[in-house]
Design goal:
Blueprint lengths: L33 H32 L21 H6 L4 E8 L4 E7 L9 E10 L5 H22 L2 E3 L8 E6 L6 E7 L2 E11 L7 E2 L2 H17 L2
Antiparallel strand pairs: 1-2, 2-3, 3-7, 4-5, 5-6, 6-7, 7-8
Length: 236
């Protein structure tokens, strides 16, 4: 028995659109970690090299910083007027080693030079220098005028070269000033007592772990110079 034709069953068919074929795409490669690993290794090597250099430098500077300052005891006899600075004051200033003492009564001049004693005065270098000039003029007025001229000479030389000058310094003297930060001394006290003019200079360097040592702080130098100057002047 023939089935009746269903409507549209044998009619014209609409063509189907061909399926689009996706173009071939390469599979993305995974990023290589070789570059990161190489960079990390180079960084670690650099750190090790820098650390090694720093360690060697620190070891070298540590030996310098901890090495006792000064020289072996000179055995120099303490002559006048160098004996006007007491042993106690010299210990406080870390300058117990008198390496030079000179006095000439005919010219009225004298010098005293102290340095640190190795093994006794710490690890930082310290210097104390005293220069004395006493007029030998027979006339008291001439002697006083000569001392005043010497004092003024110090003011025009060391005073002009200083980074700071403190005038009218009080103490056991007739007149005095302090020069801080000169080329030759961290601090100097120049005083006149009668016909005698005295220069007291204090200097030193503090060791550091840097390439260069540092000059001792100015306030420390000022206190040390004034302490020595006051004691010296009191004994004149």
């Amino acid at each position: 028995m023939v089935q009746p034709q269903q409507p549209g069953q044998w009619g014209p068919q609409h063509p189907q659109a061909p399926q689009q074929v996706q173009p071939w795409q390469p599979v993305p490669k995974k990023k290589s970690r070789a570059g990161c690993i190489t960079f990390l290794i180079l960084g670690l090597v650099a750190l090790l090299v820098v650390g090694g250099i720093a360690g060697v430098y620190f070891y070298w500077r540590h030996g310098i910083v901890t090495e006792p300052a000064g020289e072996e005891p000179s055995g120099q006899p303490v002559i006048a007027p160098c004996d006007l600075v007491s042993a106690e004051t010299l210990r406080k200033l870390h300058t117990t080693n008198l390496i030079h003492g000179y006095s000439d009564e005919e010219t009225g001049s004298a010098t005293c030079t102290w340095r640190a004693t190795k093994g006794q005065d710490g690890t930082n270098e310290r210097y104390l220098d005293i220069t004395v000039s006493t007029s030998v003029a027979e006339d008291p007025a001439d002697a006083l005028a000569e001392a005043e001229e010497t004092f003024e000479h110090y003011r025009q030389t060391d005073g002009k070269r200083a980074s700071r000058v403190t005038d009218d310094l009080e103490g056991p003297w007739d007149e005095a000033f302090m020069a801080t930060g000169t080329e030759v001394k961290a601090a100097m006290v120049i005083f006149r007592k009668g016909s005698t003019t005295v220069s007291v200079g204090y200097d030193g360097y503090d060791k550091t772990y840097w390439f260069e040592d540092q000059r001792l702080p100015a306030p420390d130098a000022e206190r040390a110079a004034k302490t020595a100057a006051e004691e010296f002047a009191a004994g004149l």
